[in-house]
Structure to design on (1126 residues):
């Protein structure tokens, strides 16, 4: 399976990338999602814009405030980051389920978010963490909450002329616990379902499900219940209540329960 | 070191070049200036073809070939029948004519400077398809392509007088073989010599050669087939592929060297699949559990055409429906039906897993209905005296089924309990399977330096023939392993033989090697008797150059057997199945290399587990494959493999000088029945067919009120 | 586009279309066919090579992306005639049959073990899940990798 022919550009700065974006071009970051589609000819862009050389997008920093991850940060860098493991452990837990180590060597944080596979781990974790996504275009910048970004399977609020440049994750409450659970048919395969949870002392929570529907879902009713002192079992059931298939609902409930229990220590 | 080698876990001679990356599989061969092929394949499961329009002047394209261009140059692929039954003449065409019968069927071939350019051109070829109704269910299909029916003994009498008649229905979905190396072929035609040379990733050169000769209507001597390193096959590279025929015909028509390297998508949709059978089984038993008779009606989902070997597994399944049990009254019928899917064909086990599954699941159902322990029920009915002629017509040469089962129970450590979180079950499954048969060839030659060169009709694709056969040859000849060299796979080099399938290599190929080497040794001994007893082999060769001996070893089928056991655990909350451990006891007669034999068992078991846990080739309601990539068809990874404890029971076969049977397929044959019975045990008797998905198990647990 | 890639310590130069996959450049451009192609989807792992020491799927990279970079393939794994501990371990544990998946396993696990020398069996199995094998049933591979990891730790 060989790709259709395409033009190729590898700009070195965001400024040079922006004018190249549009409906006929595809952004190549880690390539772990795009290249299979190119090979299967499911994607046939006229232009591939390789952003791996845009060094200004490769960073993980906190500077005392929120965590800021540049879009082309490799998933393996996130996995190896001491900073992330200590202060945003949910990301560390989630990233370990993303594909396999060879995928994570190349795959990027921004790529996973922009690709928006409904079974992807990072989008759900970011929603649970209350993350914000920063986009740039020739027309300017804007930021969206992660929970507003994912609109459908492989479909996000990013306009064709926009580039996702940064993932911003707010400081987490002191003493917050985190949990992540997923089921896949085989290890490293696309998840059948999963849950990400952040629970702060006092009960404030962020809970998100993946595989519960066409997009990762923030379980707001469940979060309120948890804050109100409900038992984890009940909270989990609430988180999954809108899942239509019986088995899938049971599965989501169970995974949400595990994630919440883990987060509550 | 001159042996003994037989029976020892000798490490493989093949390994070093593999580990260093010095192998040459089909796609590693890069003939300069070759034309690369991409196929236009039908997107419809069933359609009439009106016309094909290929634009001219496409970049890098040499030519586009359609069915019309092949008129007079090729016939449809041949169809193999079987004894006692009937197959229709629905051979697979090289390229589709006016009809396509499955999505993925090759319709046209583009030859271009590169695969990428060929694919570009293929996208621009317009085929006028008129979609037709599809048939996707074997039971409902009205077209029978193969049929076999045998009645033995007083069936009505047995069923009427029986204290119990147990009825059970079972289904095994289609599986994709998924060798890690897809298929491929390269062909080159020398007009001056009228010699067609074809390299093909195949299980052996012989069947490829016979197929090419038949389809291209050429004498066999005018074709040379070379089998390079092969990256797995599991049955799927045995029968020649229509694409291989196209490559050969294209090379002859264009005068170019033509190469087709199948990609993974093609391999999923167009390589013939395995299993795809369902059965209604009835077992008549008397009050104490003695089996009185068996009736079975089986439907095989054969796909759109009969590939050369499509019908063979159906015959095999039917012939083995009495399993390891002493049942002399039987009525077994199997119909192979046409559906709008890719054809099925031999896939690791090739009919034996289906028989073992249908029989062993029924036995457990019977045990539950009669209130007898499933192991006890088996023991009461085992065939005890072998050789044994079955009611269905085959004669089992040797075996000790009771010993296999006892050993499996010992090794497995059965477990069953349930608590709030999970249910645990244990199950066993026996199997008996046919291996070997027909004949095999070997030529042994004394080289000038005194080493032994053996050419074998067997052909390896991962099994380690070079090592295993060297063990036999070196020990018989009285030399070290390093003094023996083997040649496989090139039809110009090796004697015409039968090839590698049906776990026949040691029993047939190994026996032929032994006979050829023994005959050569006799000749060498005669020479040394003339000279002086301490003369070296090199001196013998100097004295009488060109010493050689040939063997053609022929035998009836041999029958391997075994007992598999599995402990499984189902998580109540999610339905998730975990296979906790497997015990695999196989009787393949004499084991030449226990290390390699165990490798075969574990590899086969992994495929059997894959079938139970995650594998299923699903077509949607319109006949579109949902398994065109690894996203739609999963294989188990190292993370899912449970511990597998293996043991060999050796009841030597009387039918060959090695006493060997076959070990290549037992794992795939014995595992599914054991796992299915373990799952049913965990579910309190509820029966489910594979794959045992979370969904199915979760619902079954709820329905069982467990 | 003209590209220059360091593979196993040697420089390979060639012409590559943007759409040429790195796996095809390695195999047909540089003639190093030890790296195999099993799916071109990034699932089977047969094409795994090391890019600056990291295991990557060469079927998911464009050849042009490797311009000026350093690769190691299976042909470069053994040091000077000897065998890498993984290669010996695979041999001794009968962890290969047809061999098609083997180079991918070797390159993947060499990278993984160097990064995680203290990985336990579960972690090794998880790491192994990124390479598919259809012949062996994996148990020999797990044994080989455990053994090699011990040896590499002690070295």
């Amino acid at each position: 399976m060989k790709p259709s022919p395409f033009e190729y550009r590898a700009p070195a700065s965001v400024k040079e990338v922006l004018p190249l974006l549009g409906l006929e071009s595809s952004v190549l970051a880690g390539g772990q999602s795009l290249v299979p589609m190119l090979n299967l000819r499911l994607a046939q862009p006229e232009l591939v814009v390789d952003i791996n050389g845009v060094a200004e997008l490769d960073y993980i920093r906190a500077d005392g405030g929120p965590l800021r991850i540049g879009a082309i940060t490799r998933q393996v860098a996130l996995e190896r980051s001491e900073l992330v493991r200590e202060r945003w452990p949910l990301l560390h837990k989630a990233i370990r389920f993303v594909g396999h180590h060879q995928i994570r060597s190349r795959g990027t944080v921004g790529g996973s978010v922009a690709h928006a596979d409904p079974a992807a781990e990072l989008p759900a974790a970011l929603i649970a963490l209350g993350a914000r996504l920063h986009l740039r275009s020739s027309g300017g910048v804007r930021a969206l909450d992660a929970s507003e970004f994912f609109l459908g399977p492989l479909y996000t609020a990013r306009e064709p002329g926009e580039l996702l440049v940064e993932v911003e994750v707010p400081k987490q409450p002191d003493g917050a616990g985190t949990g992540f659970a997923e089921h896949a048919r085989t290890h490293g395969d696309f998840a059948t379902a999963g849950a990400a949870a952040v629970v702060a002392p006092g009960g404030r929570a962020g809970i998100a499900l993946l595989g519960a529907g066409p997009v990762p879902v923030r379980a707001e009713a469940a979060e309120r219940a948890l804050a109100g002192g409900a038992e984890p079992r009940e909270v989990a059931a609430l988180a999954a209540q809108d899942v239509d298939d019986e088995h899938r609902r049971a599965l989501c409930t169970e995974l949400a329960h595990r994630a919440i229990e883990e987060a509550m220590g | 070191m001159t042996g003994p080698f037989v029976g020892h876990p000798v490490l493989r001679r093949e390994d070093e070049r593999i580990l260093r990356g010095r192998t040459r599989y089909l796609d590693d061969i890069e003939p300069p200036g070759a034309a690369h092929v991409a196929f236009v394949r039908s997107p419809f499961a069933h359609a009439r073809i009106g016309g094909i329009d290929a634009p001219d002047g496409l970049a890098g394209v040499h030519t586009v070939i359609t069915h019309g261009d092949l008129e007079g140059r090729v016939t449809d692929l041949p169809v193999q029948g079987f004894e006692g039954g009937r197959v229709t003449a629905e051979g697979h065409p090289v390229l589709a004519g006016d009809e396509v019968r499955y999505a993925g069927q090759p319709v046209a071939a583009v030859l271009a400077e590169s695969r990428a350019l060929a694919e570009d051109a293929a996208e621009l070829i317009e085929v006028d398809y008129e979609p037709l109704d599809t048939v996707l269910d074997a039971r409902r299909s009205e077209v029978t392509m193969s049929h076999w029916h045998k009645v033995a003994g007083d069936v009505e009498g047995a069923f009427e007088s029986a204290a119990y008649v147990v009825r059970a229905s079972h289904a095994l979905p289609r599986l994709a073989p998924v060798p890690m190396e897809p298929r491929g072929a390269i062909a080159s035609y020398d007009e001056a010599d009228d010699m067609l040379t074809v390299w093909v990733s195949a299980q052996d050169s012989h069947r490829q050669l016979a197929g090419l000769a038949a389809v291209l209507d050429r004498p066999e001597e005018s074709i040379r087939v070379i089998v390079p390193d092969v990256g797995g096959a599991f049955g799927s590279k045995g029968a020649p592929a229509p694409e291989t025929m196209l490559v050969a015909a294209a090379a002859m028509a264009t005068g170019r060297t033509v190469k087709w390297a199948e990609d993974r998508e093609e391999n999923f949709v167009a390589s013939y699949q395995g299993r795809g059978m369902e059965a209604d089984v009835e077992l008549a038993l008397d009050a104490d559990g003695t089996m009185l008779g068996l009736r079975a009606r089986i439907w095989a989902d054969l796909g759109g055409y009969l590939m050369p070997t499509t019908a063979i597994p159906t015959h095999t399944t039917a012939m083995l429906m009495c399993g390891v049990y002493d049942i002399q009254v039987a009525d077994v019928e199997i119909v192979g039906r046409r559906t709008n899917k890719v054809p099925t064909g031999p896939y690791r086990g090739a009919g034996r897993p289906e028989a073992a599954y249908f029989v062993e699941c029924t036995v457990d159902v019977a045990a539950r209905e009669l209130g007898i322990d499933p192991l006890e029920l088996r023991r009461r009915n085992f065939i005890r005296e072998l050789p044994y002629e079955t009611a269905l017509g085959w004669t089992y040469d040797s075996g000790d089924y009771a010993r296999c089962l006892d050993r499996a129970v010992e090794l497995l450590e059965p477990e069953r309990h349930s608590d709030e979180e999970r249910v645990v079950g244990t199950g066993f499954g026996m199997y008996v399977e046919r291996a070997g048969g027909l004949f095999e060839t070997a030529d042994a030659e004394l080289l000038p330096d005194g080493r032994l060169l053996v050419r074998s009709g067997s052909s390896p694709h991962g099994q380690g023939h070079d090592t295993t056969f060297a063990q036999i040859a070196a020990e018989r000849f009285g030399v070290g392993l390093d003094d023996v060299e083997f040649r496989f796979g090139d039809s110009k080099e090796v004697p015409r033989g039968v090839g590698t399938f049906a776990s026949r290599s040691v029993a047939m190929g190994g026996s032929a090697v032994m006979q050829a080497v023994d005959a050569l040794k006799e000749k060498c001994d005669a020479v040394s008797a003339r000279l002086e007893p301490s003369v070296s082999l090199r001196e013998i060769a100097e004295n009488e150059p060109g010493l050689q001996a040939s063997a053609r070893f022929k035998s009836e089928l041999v029958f391997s057997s075994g007992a598999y056991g599995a402990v499984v655990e189902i998580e109540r909350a999610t339905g998730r199945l975990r296979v906790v451990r497997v015990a695999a006891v196989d009787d393949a007669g004499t084991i030449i290399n226990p290390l390699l034999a165990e490798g075969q068992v574990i590899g086969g078991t992994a495929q059997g587990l894959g079938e139970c846990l995650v594998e299923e080739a699903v077509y949607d309601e319109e006949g579109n494959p949902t398994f065109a990539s690894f996203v739609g068809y999963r294989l188990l990874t190292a993370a899912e493999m449970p511990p597998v404890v293996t043991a060999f029971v050796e009841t030597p076969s009387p039918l060959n000088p090695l006493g060997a049977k076959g070990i290549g397929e037992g794992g795939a044959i014995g595992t599914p029945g054991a796992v299915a019975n373990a799952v049913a045990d965990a579910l309190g008797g509820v029966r489910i067919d594979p794959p045992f998905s979370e969904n199915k198990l979760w619902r079954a647990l709820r329905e069982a009120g467990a | 586009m003209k590209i220059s890639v360091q593979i196993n310590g040697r420089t390979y130069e060639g012409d590559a279309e943007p759409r040429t996959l790195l796996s095809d450049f390695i195999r047909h451009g540089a003639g190093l066919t030890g790296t195999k192609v099993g799916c071109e989807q990034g699932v089977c792992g047969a094409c795994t090579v090391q890019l600056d020491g990291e295991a990557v799927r060469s079927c998911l990279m464009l050849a042009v992306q490797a311009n000026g970079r350093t690769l190691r393939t299976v042909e470069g794994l053994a040091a000077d005639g000897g065998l890498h501990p993984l290669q010996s371990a695979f041999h001794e544990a009968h962890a290969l049959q047809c061999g098609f998946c083997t180079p991918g396993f070797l390159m993947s696990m060499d990278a993984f073990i160097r990064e995680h020398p203290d990985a336990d069996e579960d972690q090794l199995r998880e790491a192994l899940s990124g390479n598919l094998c259809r012949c062996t049933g994996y148990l020999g591979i797990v044994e080989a990798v455990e053994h090699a990891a011990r040896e590499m730790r002690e070295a």
